[in-house]
Design brief:
The chain is an alpha+beta fold. The protein has a single domain, classed as Alpha-Beta Complex (Nucleoside Triphosphate Pyrophosphohydrolase), CATH 3.90.79.10. The strands form two sheets. The chain has a four-stranded mixed sheet with strand order 4-1-6-5, sandwiched between helices. It has a three-stranded antiparallel sheet with strand order 3-2-7. A hairpin with a 2-residue loop joins strand 5 and strand 6. The chain starts with 5 loop residues before the first strand and ends with a helix. 26% of the residues are buried.
């Protein structure tokens, strides 16, 4: 009999600037999947809504403040990762306050969506880029 998987809920933001570029960051050395590019975000803590988690993570990682009404859910991915099952929720955000600064000194870049397609990313992030393309294309 299969045991029930442990779910890991993770949130991420596609921060879109006034030029339509999207912020991506490189995973630091010493962490799983180091060197791969990803959308900023992190784990949803116990008792936290995904939106509250994303607001908290963006403050911690990038030193910016985002209001919950300014994040819009766009896609999700589901992926088995070791002994857990990852549920990755992607949001679009076009409005924040503060100047983006990586608190962990991660490599961050603003890139056009087309350039993100070619970046090495964790397995769950890849399908989200395709869904993001459709969403941003429809919104343009």
């Amino acid at each position: 009999m299969e045991k029930n998987p442990t779910y890991l809920f993770v949130v991420a933001a596609a921060l879109v600037d006034e030029n339509g570029r999207i912020l991506v960051q490189k995973r630091p050395e010493g962490k799983p999947m180091a060197g791969l590019w990803e959308f900023p975000g992190g784990k949803v803590e116990t008792g936290e809504t995904p939106e509250a988690a994303l607001v908290r993570e963006l403050e911690e990682e990038l030193c910016i403040h985002v209001e919950e009404p300014d994040i819009e859910p766009v896609a999700f991915a589901s992926e088995a990762v070791e002994d857990q099952h990852l549920i990755l929720l992607l949001y679009i955000c076009r409005s924040w306050t503060g100047r983006i600064h990586s608190a962990d000194a991660l490599d961050v870049q603003w890139l056009p969506l087309e350039a993100i397609h070619d970046l090495p990313m964790p397995p769950a992030d890849g399908p989200l880029v395709q869904k993001l393309s459709k969403s941003l294309g429809d919104a343009a």
